[in-house]
Amino acid sequence: MQILLTTPDPEIAASDFLRSGNIVHAPALHDAPPGDLLDALRRYGATGLIAARRPESEVLRQWSGHHPGGVFVGYAAGRPPQTPHPGVCEHRQPGAGLESVGASLRRCEQWFTLRRLPGPAADPPDGAHRDVVVIGAGIVDLITALHLSESGYEVTVLDRSPEPGSAAWHRYGCTFAGDDARMFTLTEMDCYTNRDPWLKSPDHFRTPVEKLGWLASDRPHRTPEEEEWIDESERIPSWLTRAYTGDVFALNADAGDRWRSLRQRHSALFEDVVLVDDILRVYSDPLHLDAALARHRGIGAVLREFTPEDIARDVPALGPALREGTLSGGFLVPGFTLNVHKFSRRIIDHLVRRGVSFHWNTPVTGVRRDAGGQVTGFDCPLPLPAGAHVVASPGAHGQRLLDGSPCEGRIHGVLGGWVRISNAGTGLRTSLKVARRGHVTEDANVTVARDADGREVLVVGSGYGYVGSDPGAVDGRQLDAVRRGILDTVRRILPGSAPPALSSDPAENYDFKFCVRPWTSTSLGLHHTERTADGGLFVITGGHNTGGFAQAPTVAGAVLASLRGEPHPMHRLYRPDRFTAFADTTTEPAARTARQPVTSAT
């Protein structure tokens, strides 16, 4: 989508607002005659216009006549007509400056995503198909299988890994390779692209972990695919990050409602999984605390604000960190934590009782397609039912399942590490989110848990380590930087804590381990549906970075809607081409800022 921006604010060119590459800034057109504006809109092939004031109606009428799909115009001054022009979406955003321009751009991108992009590619399925094969048995897949089984589908689950608990942790995907802890909050899945219009393009994917970046790959050079992935992440401007964040948080809120419903319908699944409600967020930096508090207030996600004295009184384990100045304060947010291994096993047992079939050590290594690109089968040692729907949430390790689809190449790996400490002396009853700005492991989750023998432990997870398109390409030195960062957080936040006692479950007796999370360049998840040659549907979900568990019930709802041929917000908001379709232009690429006045051709 090409956008013409005529607002004459000089701050625009100095900000990151033009970073996506599809916005032509032509401030000379602000006072240009209507004919010159119309000529520029046509010349640039623009379907979006952001201006300080509303253009003349005749300009909008003639401009929209060249674009059957419609056009968008946003402005700060002027009144829309009582009878809207056909094919023109008008948005009035009062005010001036970057905030007003950014709001109009966000509305423009939303209009493009919801109105201009085609809907899901697959037609509504034939209701006769009731067999569903779910590829993967991570927590997202298990919640999806639960919803499908409850809705009357015959479900089969295939997983490349051994049965949970029967092998070493590194044989598993993210759910079981990571430790026995997951968290839901209303900001759990977030956007990690640039948020500040005055910052240069973030380079954390190019900077090693030990230098406060995210790079943790052991390969000396990035592949062309990885360069393209990183470049795409760096192109996303702050105003678009805000748009994506709003959509992600809306889906988080939806997931929160669905989690509550699931807990009511299946209370037995949540027994003996160390379910702990509400999360205490604590911060090392007072400015970071203030900004985070304002952010959470904005989405209604603050249950209680604490003074440092309140925290020291109510959570004595944090008293030393507060007194030493390691922590500045915090606040309580809605959410919960649980022990995800215990929870997943309870879901598996429940599904088996419902007749769901699980096949472990059964990898699906690829997707077969005909010359036209349609799915004709799957490379799997187990024959799949004829006409079955296939649902894949491939994590970071199943990227070959994405080949030939719009999701190909869009999921890369970002590792995170885990350590355990005893909770016997610490006595935490509330799980924590710890934010240490400028630290090598800036964000950490401290989850209240129990080991296999029922002893109280704390599971500490943290770290961002980009390993790219190969989840196994882990640099030991950068991994050790993550380990040392987590141990430093434990030492500074919970001084005096002790290692846990040995567990009867060998998988729990480790000094440090890690899992690789599926990540996208935009921080948005993926949802894609296409028809297979035998009449079923192939549905791909994934790439939820830190929010796979958090958004799992909403992912399940989106999958179910796909199989029913029904709309769901995730279908469009998590389109794999959402950014590339918006940022691409249909005309010759234009300079980001027009250096010379734009005038009508003579």
Describe the 3D structure.
Helices cover 30% and strands 22% of the residues. The longest helix is centred in the middle third of the chain and has 28 residues, at 238-265. It has helices spanning 11-14, 34-43, 57-65, 98-116, 139-150, 174-177, 224-235, 238-265, 286-298, 308-314, 319-323, 340-353, 476-493, 552-564, 569-573, 578-583; strands at residues 3-5, 23-25, 48-53, 71-77, 88-92, 131-135, 154-158, 182-185, 276-283, 304-306, 329-338, 357-359, 366-369, 375-379, 389-392, 412-422, 431-435, 443-450, 456-468, 513-519, 526-531, 537-542. 49% of the residues are buried. It has 16 helices and 22 strands. Strands 8, 9, 10, 11, 16, 17, 18, 19 and 20 form a 9-stranded mixed beta sheet that branches.
Principal-axes geometry comes out as globular
Note the beta-strand portion: 15-25%
> Any low-confidence stretches, pLDDT <50, length ≥5?
587-602
Count of beta strands: 22
Average pLDDT over all residues: 93
Helix content: 25-40%
Class of secondary structure makeup: alpha/beta
Profile the largest sheet: 9 strands, mixed
Distance between the termini: 27 Å
Please give the radius of gyration in angstroms.
25 Å
Number of helices: 16
